[in-house]
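Methods: holo model generation. Sequences were used as deposited, without trimming of termini or removal of tags, and paired with ligand SMILES retrieved from the corresponding compound records. Each pair was processed once, and we did not select among multiple samples. The sequence and fe (ii) ion SMILES for this entry were:
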Amino acid sequence: MSGADRDAGGLKGRRIAVVLFNLGGPDDQASVKPFLFNLFNDPAIIGLPGLARTPLARLISSRREAAAQANYRLMGGGSPLLPETRRQAQALEAVLNDRLADDEVRVFIAMRYWHPLTQETAADVAVYGPDEVILLPLYPQYSTTTTQSSLKEWNAVYAGSGVSRAVCCYPDAPGWIEAQADGVCEKLDAPGDAPVRVLFSAHGIPEKLVTGKGDPYQEQVETTVASVVAAVEARRGPIDHAICYQSRVGPMKWLGPSTPEAIEAAGRDGLGVVVVPTAFVSEHIETLVELDIEYAELAHEKGASPYLRAPAVGIGAPFIGALADAALDALDRTGGRTGVAPFGPGCKAKWKSCPRGDAGTCSARTAA
Ligand SMILES: C=CC1=C(C)c2cc3[nH]c(cc4nc(cc5[nH]c(cc1n2)c(C)c5CCC(=O)O)C(CCC(=O)O)=C4C)c(C)c3C=C
Ligand SMILES: [Fe+2]
Ligand SMILES: [Fe+2]
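and the model returned the structure below.
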């Protein structure tokens, strides 16, 4: 049934599907290895032809399995990413149905490497029969390894109805920045007067993706951090801060400095740290294990005390508001005021780095 048919029947106007994209995580111990295989078999992660990549992905997933399982056991056996994302989807659906009272909005979740996989969600969205589809990555900063990989996969598998529009990124969207600034200030206000450095810790990527392939991720991480620092400093004056990159995998050179290096430097400088997850929007293995356990131990060893960690933005109102603004922006309802970066033809006007070759996947309209 089209939007016009529904109007004639006195029902709500358009049917809008919003698809949230994230990486996915294993839900139990048995799914750790196939999840890792899917991740390392993605050409956006290992840029080799399939004949070389697939056996390598099998090898790496076998080798990493036991250590990764042990880390997931620290969180009860599997990843909390899907339940966290479901809470965000519910909160966003409520806000959007409120703000688009004449339309019907349903929010779906498409994960890249574990269930609900993009292909499964694409089939669900097709059954829903939307008039419009908003593709909304839960990655504030665009990277070829995350956003582009997810959007490419979606474009390859979605065969349903509706005009699709993709949000490329929202590195400095006001609600996203406010949510992080709130988290930083909450930790800076914690009792105690030991001097601290605020470490903005983003998931790393190989450096050559930025220098050789024009991946805009680093520039957008720097944009996020500059905006959060400005917001925090407006509230409480100058702060000592630095950007660093966590979760390095494999032998290649990744963006630096690494978060362990930055923690060690703070210890040497006689400072404690407030670590802020600046590219993750929910809690999962990289925050609950890597930041809260592994790096907390390192900070203790290196004398970076206190070690404080700002929460991920989760379902806080400012962040869910930022997602709603981004979706409305994609629907052309706000006149482009929300900080959604103009990829495609407008990209060069705002950003130094634009993804080369495949920028089309990130323009406002993808497919009819
Ligand atoms: C901004 C977000 C992310 C970027 C960029 C990213 C790049 C990237 N990741 C790997 C390898 C792994 N990532 C893993 C977990 C993981 N990664 C992200 C986000 C980004 N990854 C999230 C949200 C998660 C958590 C999933 C969960 O289960 O809770 C893992 C698995 C865990 C582990 O073994 O450490 C791997 C492996 C690469 C190689 C890469 C860029 C090239
Ligand atoms: Fe990752
Ligand atoms: Fe990790």
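Residues 174-309 form a domain with the Rossmann fold fold (CATH 3.40.50.1400).
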